[in-house]
Amino acid sequence: MVYWGTPKVKEVLETTEWPRVYRERNERQENSFKRMIDHGALNTNYGRKKIVGPDRHQQRAREKLAQSLEAAQKRVNKKAETLKTHQDQVAESASKGHGKRLEQRQRALARGEEALRAAQHTHANVAEHAAALGPPGERADRDFRKQTIMTFRTLLLENALMAFMVLLWGRLQTKGSVDCLLRILFERSGARMETASQVVYWVNTAGLSVAYQRLLTEVVAGLCAMDLQEQGKLIRVRLKDLPP
Amino acid sequence: MQFAPIQRNFDEGSGPSFCAGRKFGEVEQALLWTLLHEDPECPSRVLLDKVAQRQISMAVSIRHLNRWRAQWQLNRPKGRPRQTPCRPPVASGPEVVQVTSRLSFVGVHLFAHWLDQQHAFGPVVVQLQQAIEAHKCAHPDDDFALLHHREQTLRRRFQALFFAPLIGIEHLTAFDTHEHPLPTLLGRGYHSATLGQFLGQLERIDAAEALMPALVPQQSGPITYVDGHMIAYWSRLSMHKGKITMLGRIMAGSQAVIAHNKAGQALRVEYHPPDIHLSQIIVDYCSKVSTVTESALFVIDRAVNSVAMARAFDTQGLGLLCMLDDNEHAGLDSFAATEVGTLADGSKI
Known about the structure:
The complex is a heterodimer.
Chain A: E1 3-5, H1 7-12, H2 18-39, E2 50-54, H3 56-96, H4 100-132, E3 138-142, H5 145-169, H6 178-186, E4 190-195, E5 198-203, H7 210-225, E6 229-230, E7 233-239
Parallel strand pairs in A: 5-7
Antiparallel strand pairs in A: 2-3, 4-5, 6-7
Chain B: H1 4-11, H2 26-38, H3 44-53, H4 62-72, E1 96-103, H5 106-117, H6 122-138, H7 151-163, H8 174-177, H9 182-186, H10 192-204, H11 207-211, E2 223-233, E3 251-261, E4 266-272, H12 278-293, E5 297-300, H13 307-315, E6 319-323
Parallel strand pairs in B: 2-5, 5-6
Antiparallel strand pairs in B: 2-3, 3-4
Helix pairs in contact in B: 6-7
């Protein structure tokens, strides 16, 4: 694989670091997009609004036709010059009394006339298409602001989840993914009891495999160690099948 | 008589004067008035039930009852009565304040408390309030609900949008059709109409751009990764076709250009129409990111491969690290290469 960089990159990063830094893009971005699609509703549309702007399709078609028209005009000019040359040559042969060469030059002149007619026809066609496009038009585009707010929401959520994960997994011996945490902790039901001094949350462990229960036990211990508070009261987390 | 004390109270002048009607006698009116005084927020249907419990027959409709309530100025405000977020205590013991025996999405509640402790929504609300003030100055004639929201309302509604994907709600309409734990999470529930209106009004003040600084951490690091993410768009309306065509897609949708720092934290997002290639907007985008994060090195995928792009970045004082496509070179023969070392995985540099 071939990596390239501008001089500024070379100043800051050793060349041997380039492959590693580039490959990290996969985890930082590609995998992050997948995670956000899964649990952050990244791909959900939240409505649209039309805003009228210049018709870019028409602009592109006009640019393309302008290029074709210019090329066709050049071709017509070139064919006209060739035809002029042939006409001069025919006149020269006629004045010098050539026999066979005159015939050859007359045939070449006829071919030149045909080629000029074809070039003129192409030019006329392209010009007709360009004229058919009409004056610069307008087209309705989507307004992305509503979508941007909700994508901002998703990014903020993902940032917060990552920070929470780093803090939580830092206290555990077993490591896991965001998806794993969402499945074994976030999506589970339970119960809540508030007393004068603390708030106790129970997490329902029903249906969890032994491995997940073991991980959830660690997660719960990690959460207790984080000293979470609710309105000044200490939060305790327990598994539901254990005595509170 | 059961209603004697009530009637005595009316005689003292605390109640209105009752006059018997065709369907509604004085006693019934007095009873209703008393019940309403005890609980002015009581819905009319519940009120009729209470009357029925006292074995008094009252052949009036709810509409009729509501007219009386309006006349006595004891009618309820519009909307459904607010439910208490938590159930009453069921456990015994002097210490227990409140017990919720069934709580869904326990982890989301714990996560929400952690976010509160980190004051995660503080910067968002501050940025929103600033955007609202800016809009008020720029459009003094505008008057819509968002411009008058309290800080608490802004926070709660944004939190409702924020937690929606974690509680299994992708589209706002699911707030009306799915059971969700917002009452226990935020202290009150929301319907899609409220949140849809909130979202529309956020769009009206262009809140997205104002909120972007809330994404940027205090220290972002020198390297920023940038990538585009195409989001397809489906619609029942006839629309023009976009750049990508696939069965079922009417329009390719939109392209979100998202920047992440080395720690994987998102820094900025911008949306562009799908027919505008990344190379047309990437230099401006990276300049904006660089201004906010002071990060000068950008790692971008092969969408921006070109010498012109490298020159444009260099002119802006930015660094660009990229990779060539396999079809853009024919191995080492395409380059004047000098071997500088071998990586741990055996690949030569």
